[in-house]
Design brief:
Blueprint (H helix, E strand, L loop, with lengths): L1 H9 L3 H18 L4 E2 L2 E2 L1 E4 L4 E4 L2 E4 L5 H20 L2 H5 L2 H17 L18 H26 L5 H8 L6 H21 L2 H6 L2 H8 L5 E5 L1 H4 L30 H4 L20 H12 L6 E5 H4 L11 H22 L4 E7 L5 E4 L5 E13 L5 E8 L9 E4 L4 E3 L4 E10 L11 E11 L7 E10 L2 H5 L3
Antiparallel strand pairs: 1-2, 3-4, 4-5, 6-7, 8-10, 9-10, 10-14, 11-13, 11-15, 12-14, 15-16
C-alpha cells in the first residue's frame, strides 16, 4: 500500500498542469501580435489596411481565399480534438475558462482571500461583510484592468500594436476602435464576474455538439461505478444536497465525501455520468486522487474512456479510423493552405482594354501606326517602394513588331498603393493583310519590379487588335 501512496504522491495534479499550460497559452497569445519579420506579422487580419498577414507573408484582400481554409483548419482541429479528448479545449485552452481561473482562483482566492479554499467552488464568498464588499470592489477593479489587457490583446490581431497605441493616443478620431475596445471589456467583466460558468452551460454552443462527436474511445473525466458503486437516484445532474443517496453498497469504494462535487466549477456531479456541462478541467480527478490516495487506492474518477472504464472493453484506441480521418483532412487542408499561400503574388495587376479597339495615326511617309490602349491597375503588396516596368511577348511571327509607346520609362509604386497607368502599344508594320475582318493577336504581358525581378513578377494574357485592310487603306 505504501508503494501505491508514494506513486500517487508523485503525480502532478492536473490543476497545476493546467495552470502551467494557461501561462504558456497566455504568453504566446500576448507576444504573437508583436512578432514581425520585415514588417509582416505571424497572424494579422487588418480591417484598417485590408490586409491578411499569415506566417510573415502579407496578402491583399483579393487573396482572402485563404481565410475559409484557416477557418476549416480551426473547426476541424477542434472537432478532431473533441473526438479524441472530449471538451479538453474548454478546460485547457478556452479563454473563458482561463479568465475564470484568473479571477476565481488567483484574485478572489489567492490574493484577496475572499474564498477560503481553492478546492471549494460551490460556496460563494460572503458579501454581507463590509470587509468582503471592499475586497469585491478591489477584485472587480483588478479584473477590469486585466480585461483591458485581454481586450487590447484581441484587438492586436486586427490592428497592429504600434497602430493601436497611436490610435488610442488620439481616441476622438478613432471612435470605432474605442467603442470596440470598450464593448469587449464590458463583455469580459460581465462574463467573468456575473455570468461565470453559466456561459459554458447555457451560452456556449460547443457543449451542444460534443455528444454528437463522442464515441466509446473518447477520453474524458469518468467516474468508475464498478468500483465506486451507483451513488444517486434519479436524473438530476446538478449538484444538490437534497438529492437522495442510494444505500451504499458494502463493496463500494466511494466514500461519498463529495470532494469531486465541491471542486467542480460548473457545479455538476461527475458520478452521474456524461454531462454537457463537463469541461474536462479534471479538477474532480485531482480531488478523488487525493482522497483515495490516502486510502492507498487509485482514483475513482479518471481521465479515460467509456470503453475502458464503463464497458471494461479493453484499452482505449487513440489511433482509430475516425481520428485518422480527421488527421488526414487536417493534413490536406494545411497542405492546400501552404500551397495556395506559396503562390502569393507580390504585385497585383489587372489589365483591361479600352472600349475603342484601336486607333490609326499617320506616321512618317506612307506608313501608319496602329495603337491599342490598355488600363493597368497595379498594386504593390510589399512593405517598400518598387520600380515597375513590363515586356510584351508575342507569337513568333510578330516578334519585335508590337512595341511599347506609353509609358516610356519605369514607374514607382508605394506600398499598398493602387496605381492606374494608361498603357499604349503600337505597331508601324502591316501585321496581317486581311480584307475580311480585324485580327486579334494574342499577347503576353510580363510585368516585374526592376529591383527584384526574380521575386516580383507576374504574367497576364491580353490581345492586340490589328485592323482589316480597307480600314487601314482609308487612312492613307
Amino acid at each position: 500500500m505504501s508503494e501505491t501512496i508514494d506513486k500517487i504522491k508523485k503525480v502532478i495534479p492536473y490543476r497545476i498542469r493546467r495552470y502551467w499550460f494557461y501561462i504558456l497559452v497566455t504568453v504566446m497569445t500576448l507576444i504573437t501580435p508583436w512578432i514581425t519579420v520585415d514588417g509582416n506579422h505571424l497572424f494579422l487580419l487588418s480591417f484598417d489596411k485590408l490586409k491578411l498577414h499569415l506566417m510573415f507573408v502579407q496578402f491583399d484582400m483579393q487573396e482572402m481565399y485563404l481565410m475559409p481554409f484557416l477557418l476549416m483548419i480551426m473547426f476541424i482541429g477542434i472537432f478532431g480534438l473533441t473526438v479524441l479528448g472530449g471538451r479538453v479545449f474548454c478546460g485547457w485552452m478556452c479563454p473563458q475558462t482561463i479568465f475564470r481561473v484568473i479571477y476565481r482562483d488567483l484574485i478572489e482566492t489567492k490574493i484577496l482571500k475572499l474564498r477560503k479554499r481553492i478546492k471549494n467552488k460551490q460556496q460563494d464568498p460572503d458579501y454581507s461583510k463590509a470587509e468582503n464588499q471592499i475586497k469585491r470592489v478591489i477584485a472587480i477593479l483588478m479584473w477590469s484592468f486585466l480585461a483591458f489587457i485581454a481586450a487590447s490583446n484581441l484587438v492586436w490581431f486586427f490592428v497592429p500594436p504600434a497602430d493601436y497605441i497611436a490610435y488610442l493616443s488620439n481616441p476622438g478620431e478613432h471612435l470605432v476602435l474605442v467603442g470596440t475596445l470598450g464593448g469587449i471589456m464590458a463583455f469580459l467583466i460581465y462574463d467573468v464576474i456575473i455570468l461565470k460558468e453559466n456561459f459554458c452551460i447555457y451560452v456556449c454552443p460547443y457543449s451542444r455538439i460534443q455528444s454528437v462527436l463522442y464515441d466509446d474511445d473518447t477520453i474524458m473525466a469518468i467516474y468508475d461505478p464498478h468500483r465506486g458503486g451507483e451513488i444517486y437516484e434519479g436524473h438530476d445532474k446538478q449538484y444538490s444536497k437534497t438529492k437522495d443517496l442510494l444505500e451504499v453498497e458494502p463493496t463500494a469504494e466511494c466514500t461519498t465525501c463529495e470532494s469531486c462535487v465541491t471542486v467542480c466549477p460548473t457545479h455538476i456531479d461527475i458520478r452521474q455520468g456524461l454531462q454537457l456541462e463537463c469541461i474536462n478541467c479534471l479538477e474532480c480527478v485531482d480531488a478523488c486522487t487525493t482522497v483515495m490516495g490516502k486510502l492507498g487506492k487509485e482514483s475513482l474518477v479518471q481521465w479515460s474512456s467509456d470503453k475502458e472504464v464503463i464497458h471494461q472493453g479493453g484499452k482505449t484506441k487513440y489511433f482509430r479510423p475516425k481520428i485518422m480521418g480527421y488527421g488526414l483532412i487536417l493534413a490536406v487542408l494545411v497542405l492546400l493552405t501552404g500551397f495556395m499561400g506559396s503562390t502569393k503574388e507580390f504585385m497585383l495587376l489587372n489589365i483591361n482594354k479600352e472600349t475603342r479597339l484601336y486607333s490609326i495615326k499617320k506616321a512618317d511617309g506612307d506608313t501608319h501606326r496602329v495603337e491599342n490602349a490598355y488600363v493597368f491597375l497595379l498594386q504593390n503588396t510589399e512593405n517598400k517602394d518598387h520600380t515597375y516596368y513590363f515586356d510584351i511577348i508575342t507569337p513568333k511571327e510578330y516578334e519585335g513588331k508590337i512595341k511599347i509607346l506609353k509609358p516610356s520609362k519605369p514607374f514607382v509604386s508605394r506600398p499598398g498603393a493602387k496605381k492606374k497607368k494608361i498603357v499604349v502599344l503600337y505597331t508601324d508594320e502591316v501585321l496581317v493583310d486581311s480584307a475580311e475582318h480585324d485580327t486579334i493577336i494574342p499577347i503576353t504581358i510580363h510585368a516585374y519590379a526592376l529591383d527584384d525581378k526574380e521575386k516580383i513578377t507576374v504574367i497576364r494574357k491580353s490581345t492586340f487588335t490589328f485592323p482589316r485592310k480597307d480600314v487601314l487603306d482609308a487612312h492613307k
